[in-house]
């Protein structure tokens, strides 16, 4: 199936409902946050910029967390307009990115370690009681109750991909706290229990050589979405092969994800080899979140398998996106060396998977900011430019989700999956903390070897 991943399809459908009542109109531009942020004169050096970026965007998972669960709301709209009555809905994958940000915030002293452990314990205790489907959480959960909130009619069960984003970060937390004090060791033990209860083998639909994204207690396998590369889902196979209790065979990776070797691309974009075939975007590469979600924990430095050098894959993806925006073939206002980044986000027409093959004139700050490990100079220029654009473009939880100078459009709204990759990916750029934690887990090393990866760092 040569198409964009199901995340896009579902979100594009949902975006119609999100904007059908006029909630996505430009009236939201008039709403301003009261949050007072540092002036640009406080950014004396690049380290100060990085501190501000991490602190402010991580805050979505701290002050902005849903009170009962401690997890990340699917969206925070500062103008108060919430489509589908989903203000209390928390997102599994976005919360995973938020957990990684929590670890980074603790390590940098942005928050007190004891308070951070308390919050993480609250999260893990909630996850242990929330609905799971063969050990796998749904895409959306009701924060106050822990019950499944359908992402679509038939998508009302386990979401293996979103749960993998969550578990990858929880394993980072397990590794970070496993040798700590009594409370920290208890937290690590609870995470380990949740990890062992995830039935990756169930999601092969009876032992097929491929993983499936969804299973529903009401609709079974009717969603029928096999995970075939390349898109954002690589981490799901790494975790599946690494599971100490419900492991999948290596053949599922090679025949399913890698399509029997057909995943390899011989094409280039913006003068850079694509390396792998991007689903639905074989000529240009996909939206930039494909370079972020699986790599919150999975360290691409020196990571290779039969199909790719992943550092080359990812740096080429980010750099080609940058070069495309600089070239600006459609002549959109605002694009340039300090204003770039195409990925899935809000747009004037609703949610859309922005990329060079779907360029609507919308810049999404997380695209450039979460690419710091791959494009540090280009990302820093973008960060300073986004800030200099003024208070219309930022608020309590950092830069608003997206903007379009072409349409003179920006709304004071945030999405968890965009805001919460920024702090952990910047941390990986600064220290490699999360990469080191995840790759240090013994079962992850075993799983990578099982799939034929080598992991020698080369930079």
The percent range for helix content is 25-40%
* End-to-end Cα distance: 35 Å
Task: Report strand %.
Answer: 5-15%
Q: Radius of gyration in whole Å, from Cα?
A: 20 Å
What's the pLDDT, averaged over the residues? Answer: 91
If you had to describe this structure to a student in words, what would you say it looks like?
The chain is mainly alpha-helical and about 450 residues long. Helix content is about 40%, strand content about 5%. It contains 15 helices and 15 strands. It has helices spanning about 5-20, 45-60, 90-110, 115-130, 160-175, 180-195, 235-240, 250-255, 310-325, 365-370, 375-390, 415-420, 420-430, 435-440, 440-450, and strands spanning about 75, 90, 140, 150, 160, 215, 270, 270-275, 345, 350-355, 395, 400, 405, 410, 415. It has a 3-stranded antiparallel beta sheet. Strands 1-15 form a two-stranded antiparallel ribbon. A two-stranded antiparallel sheet has the order 5-6. Strand 11 and strand 12 (about 400) form a beta hairpin. Helix 2 (about 45-60) packs antiparallel against helix 13, helix 3 packs across helix 13 and helix 7 (about 235-240) crosses helix 15 (about 440-450). The two termini are about 35 Å apart. Mean pLDDT is about 90; it is low at about 1-40.
